[in-house]
Specification:
2 copies of one chain form a homodimer.
Chain A (H helix, E strand, L loop, with lengths): L3 H33 L2 H8 L3 H7 L3 H25 L4 H9 L9 H16 L4 H22 L7 H21 L8 H9 L4
Chain A binds a DNA duplex through helix 1 and helix 3.
Chain lengths: 197, 197
DNA sequence: GTCTATACGAAGATAGAC
DNA sequence: GTCTATCTTCGTATAGAC
């Protein structure tokens, strides 16, 4: 009866390789884009060779989609936490400023999401996953708005879409023209619009 | 003294080839992205072979940058016209609705601009060109706002950046999740914020 | 399960014909 | 100036060793 311990550690080891490959892939896809990233670079970054990649994923597209699915799930989970932990509007804004000011302020995070969207726009079979992600983003803001404001002059969903659009748009401008727009211009705008300033 | 006419037509022919190649490149880069487009496809779409491409451009990057520069110039010129031809806010909004509702509603237009931005983010030497483009976009809205509103509670530039961000963000959502967000949600938002509705 | 070696195709770039 | 042919590099994917 050789080692129950060993079977477990083997399983963990496999999972670890997969995780490392996904982590590396996430970085490299963000840095170079889908088209320009090579599986060689991903394997190297993860500390393996291409063989390990093909042992875990069927193809480059398959790996990309695995990265995409994991990322979208994590993001939605993370967003839910922020909302639940911020009882007042003031709290939510303060939390937001720590991010800093915009969920998409992190360069790689922004690049990766942009890659996902481009991929979805060019691969119709993937489009529904991204559309669902955007819907959840709007739903997230809709909840946040409804929980803190009553008697809105317009539907909460409409405001939510505008807020999400602003968050995305300001992140875009701040990344491309950092000397002109700052990431926390998003919180500034929210405070201005809600009259909290 | 053989044919002044002929020299001219030769010059025009050269310019025409260049223009056709740029037009084709603009389409193909938008459809497939920088990484996945091949010079073969571009040449084919323009009705030439790769030889014609290399006769007119030094490399794939050189061609991409030529497309980028022409596009940015045209866009700025076009934007200026819309502003000058719309005396009232109502007129400007009506013009906008014809676009329809968002300057980036055209799929290829949106994809191409996104490619430009990604390229700029990954190629520091190109970044200033895109940053300048974003600045001009903000300047454009700043002028539009100043010309139609007095005694603003916040700097016109700040509002302009927010409006431009909204335009970009709504276009993004509308492209990725067309069943959830419509392109003219941008004009809706502007009308709501300006109290014109 | 991971690595090494390799097959295979694709695409950027160049050279020479016209 | 444009085309055809070719060189060369590179990257995906596979096969077989360990």
């Amino acid at each position: 009866m050789p080692a129950r311990v060993k079977r477990l550690s083997r399983t963990e080891s496999v999972a670890q390789t997969r995780t490392r490959l996904l982590d590396a892939a996430e970085e490299v896809f963000a840095e170079h884009g889908f088209g320009a990233t090579t599986l060689e670079r991903i394997a190297e970054r993860a500390g393996y060779t291409r063989g390990a990649v093909y042992a875990n994923f069927a193809s480059k597209d398959d790996l990309f989609l695995a990265v995409l699915d994991r990322w979208l799930d994590d993001d939605i989970e993370h967003g839910g936490r922020i909302n639940a932990e911020s009882p007042s509007v003031r709290d939510a804004f303060d939390r937001l400023r720590e991010l800093p000011g915009n969920r998409f302020a992190d360069r790689n995070r922004f690049l990766l999401l942009t890659e996902f969207r481009l991929y979805a726009l060019r691969n119709p079979e993937v489009a529904p996953r991204l559309a669902e992600y955007e819907r959840r983003g709007i739903a997230w803001y809709t909840d946040a708005i409804r929980a803190r404001a009553a008697d809105l002059p317009v539907p909460a969903e409409q405001l939510a879409a505008i807020v999400l659009a602003m968050e995305n748009g300001i992140a875009t401008l701040a990344h491309v023209a950092p000397d002109t727009v700052r990431h926390d211009a998003f919180v500034d705008a929210l405070e201005m619009l809600t009259g909290l300033r």
